[in-house]
Amino acid sequence: MLKYYLEIIKPRIVLGNIILIMGSFLFTSHLSFNFVLFISTISGASLIIASSCVFNNLIDIKIDSKMCRTKNRALVKKLIRPISAGIFGVCIGLLGIFILGALVNFLSMFLSIIGFIIYVFIYTFLKRTSIYSTFVGSFSGSIPSLIGYAAVNNTLDLFSLFLFFVFIFWQMPHFYAISIVYIEDYKNANLRFFSIERGILKTKKHIFYYIICFTISSFILTFLGYLSYIFLCLVSIINLYWLYISYMNIKEKNNLKLSRKIFFLSIIVVVVFNFLIAVDSKF
């Protein structure tokens, strides 16, 4: 039974968000790293993110039942009762709010709640009606970088806002690549994603444009003095390769081959990016 509850919190999504929290937290900590604050931030935010995933699973039961990728999920197969999942989601969400409010600060707690609301109450429903649901969802996915930053500083500044938009530019090609790979599933579920409504070729072009924006915004962080030129050189290597693959994908007739590669590269890109900003102050 425990494995089913672990499934509905979507561990990979939680882990992906933790990477963003860690990057911004460690960057802004510099030489005054607070281990207790770090663990409290990660724990509290992770519980709220996990709670949002539980409610996303609950709301999407019918959609998940129509897709090959998700038809065997615990809630779809009734391995967990919806009421039990709902109680579980509420409990871990409230625990996360308490941890952030009591052990971190109210700003981080507030940002986590905002991310929860966007993901559960806006994105989850919007993907049924609008091609721009992915863009809205990217705001929720970028908030963890603000949470990590605010946990240390108890404030937000221009750098944190730049970082927020950098991760929006990263998430769009990440999600668009997924939407190409699983386009038949999404069609079966009657979802209105960009790749379905506007076509795969246009989606490929938008992936390329967003990666350009991500790459340029990475440059800007250095040119404004927030990050070093060593960071710029290292991050540019993988960014430009990602950009090159996305350009080749536009010409590629096989829609799955390079779209999968773009997706997996996006994971490497975000891990490398956050690692580099975390250690940048030590360069």
UniProtKB/TrEMBL annotation:
It is a multi-pass membrane protein. It catalyses: heme b + (2E,6E)-farnesyl diphosphate + H2O = Fe(II)-heme o + diphosphate. It comes from the Bacteria. Keywords: Cell membrane, Heme biosynthesis, Membrane, Transferase, Transmembrane, Transmembrane helix. GO terms for cellular component: plasma membrane. The chain crosses the membrane at residues 12-29, 35-59, 79-100, 106-126, 131-152, 158-183, 207-223, 229-250, 262-279. It is found in: Cell membrane; Membrane. One of its GO terms (molecular function) is protoheme IX farnesyltransferase activity. Its EC number is 2.5.1.141. InterPro entries: Protohaem_IX_farnesylTrfase, UbiA_prenyltransferase, UbiA_prenylTrfase_CS, UbiA_sf. GO terms for biological process: heme O biosynthetic process. It is an enzyme of class 2 (transferase). Pathway: Porphyrin-containing compound metabolism; heme O biosynthesis; heme O from protoheme: step 1/1. Belongs to the UbiA prenyltransferase family. Protoheme IX farnesyltransferase subfamily. Carbon 2 of the heme B porphyrin ring is defined according to the Fischer nomenclature. HAMAP family: CyoE_CtaB (MF_00154). Converts heme B (protoheme IX) to heme O by substitution of the vinyl group on carbon 2 of heme B porphyrin ring with a hydroxyethyl farnesyl side group. This is Protoheme IX farnesyltransferase.
